Ferrochelatase
Amino acid sequence: MHSSLSPARHTDTHSADTAVLLINLGTPDTPSPRDVRRYLAEFLSDPRVVELPAWPWQPLLHGLVLPFRSRASAKKYESIWMQEGSPLAVHTERQARELQAWFDARGKRIVVEHAMRYGNPSIAAVITRLRANGVKRILVLPMYPQYAASTTATAFDKIAAALRKIRNQPVMRFVNHYHADARYIEALRRQVQRYWDANGRPNFAAGDKVLFSFHGLPLRSVELGDPYYSQCMQTGALLAVALGLAPGQFCVTFQSRFGYQKWLEPATDEMLADLGDADTSRVDVFCPGFTADCIETIEEIGIEGRDIFLEFGGMEFHRIDCLNEAPAFIDMLGEIALDNLAGWSNEAPLTSGSTDLFEAA
């Protein structure tokens, strides 16, 4: 099953010298074991993702991890694959198209493109195309609300590597987090409330719970200085207040553990087991750190997480969709972009979460 998606070529019809580049993690081109293995090899070879010396890790990766993990992961990808392609690729391309339409409707001569840190469309290919089409200034807007070296920083690393091959480089700005931005929290609130309006609100008086599940990190990453944990906790607290939740009605958890080292806790799967074992009638799981639905939200939470909760005695499991193309999220992306384009577009003062490089194009 091959994806029918192709990189959005907004530059063909939107002549402008300023661009916004959305960056997400990435996905295999197809759910075949070969393509999944290729993707995982690139992802797990990144020293910011697996912080181990290459000499012991690479033989282990290629000799043990990839042969087993690729086939198992391929089955999971196949179970969630959409007609248009991988959910992450589909939603990220749609987000780019919606944001382009948002700028167009406001008369902004700004090009929107998207790229993936691992896989396609690659960061290098998109930057090269933007530069060839006359773009002189690029605002990089990662789709990671909370900063981590293994997500945001490695995307910036890849951009720097791409720029090394360009003689006449574009001016670059980077947004490295927006975990507590009021517009982001409001977009999250609306997404959850929309689901509750359609499916009913949990009965907190009866002990129902809401989990805000974020992607996990090894504890060592936080000990080395990543602000990720504190930013996730702040996002969860702000969202809980926005939804009117009391402390005992929600919990921030962390998913997607890998390997044997200690990871951030509490773990989502263990919490779901504990809630089921405690005869919790209903649990709602929302993933605020994922801006687009993907294998971690659809399969890991929606299938594996549901099975764990029900197996341990829970009665009713609800997975709330990620922000995807929600209008409030597109509004947020557009407004944050305009904030950080100040000085290029004279729209608004520069926010504190951005960085300028090479201020002469």
The chain has two domains: 10-31+81-177+327-357, 182-320. The domain at 182-320 is CATH 3.40.50.1400 (Rossmann fold). Residues 6-14, 346-352, 357-361 have pLDDT under 50 and may be disordered.
